[in-house]
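Handoff note, outgoing to incoming analyst
You'll be picking up this chain. Sequence as last confirmed:
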Amino acid sequence: MLTLTSYRFETIAIVFSTMGILVSLFFEFVLGSQPCKLCLWQRYLMLSIFCLSILSIITSFKAIVLLILGAFLALIGVSGYHAMVQFGIVLDPCSVPVISSKMEFWEAINSPIPCSKISASVFGVPLSVINAVFGMGVFTMLTSEIIKN
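Most recent structure output, in case you need it:
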């Protein structure tokens, strides 16, 4: 029988990733804040967390949990890196492209959104920082769920 308590790990991951995706889509389509490449990478990771969690529930294959934790670690890393770029600690990878082909040249020209621009924030805190902090919190909760079981 499918109960919320038997899939608590996956439920927490699904709620976090769904909220993250919905908030980012709200900022993009309702508030008009265009995402940079690092913002998109964070979305892709949240989408992978969502899909892996659903797959874990459907298949009951518990090794998927390790993939979910790995995706959370990657999300924390990308979000933290994005925050460092936005605060000027690390060079913006979007503003200094390395061009080795015509295609990369046109991609650089057509990519107007720098990663260092803080285009979306809540109470002055960039979404990348919020994403990293919540990601660490959820990662800690999920790890404690594994240790308990």
